[in-house]
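Kindly inspect this one:
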Amino acid sequence: MSDIERDEPIEETLETADGSTEVEETTDEAVAAEAVDAPVEDEAEVEIDPYEDFRAELRGKLGKWYVIHSYAGFEKRVKQNIENRRVSMGIEDDVLEVQVPMEDVVEIKNGQRKLVNRVRIPGYVLVRMFLNEDSWSVVRHTPGVTGFVGNAHNPTPLRFEEAFNMLKSLVEPKEVPVAKGATAAKGSATQARSIPAEVDFEVGETITIKEGSFAGLPGTISEIKPESGKLTVLVSLFERETPVELTFDQVTKL
């Protein structure tokens, strides 16, 4: 029987430069080592739009969005008036939807924080409609409406992004995972919705410090930081103005 016909394991040999031979290893460990050494592509991080569902819903709606002027403080009443008139005048198929964008704002007065819900764009109401002579007349002659934004008789509708930016405050954004590598807040795995703060302080205004090392001293506001709830106040010390960082509740208005 020839050597090839024997049922014995065969080792593949390689001839080296000095004529000796080496056995090429083909073990599982070698294969695994190659796999470890091979570069691994990082998974692409896909940015998630928290308003993705709302965008899709908005794109699917019929008609166009138009902006109308109203008296400030009467936006909600105008909305109700248009909704009533579209029914009583039988044009529900032309005037489709009326919205007054709202927003949550933290108002800070005399150091006290209060969450309020207010009209986002005072004096304006959004109407989704098919513009024609009847729909224009019903909306334009609604009590409280002072006119359409743009051309009075042939107004220009909002572009999609304009309508989206004005209306997105009507919905809660979808919770999205914190980006890979980002540090999440303790006890939270999602990004929190930030609420803008509105303050009744002004740069250049004189205040009195009521807490801390400078309690009782007057100061002048040089910078306002609504996001962190802090002020930079110039305090006169030793005939020099010294900047001091204070929280809203550490000062009081004169």
Q: What stands out?
A: The helical segments are 28-37, 52-59, 75-88, 133-140, 160-167.
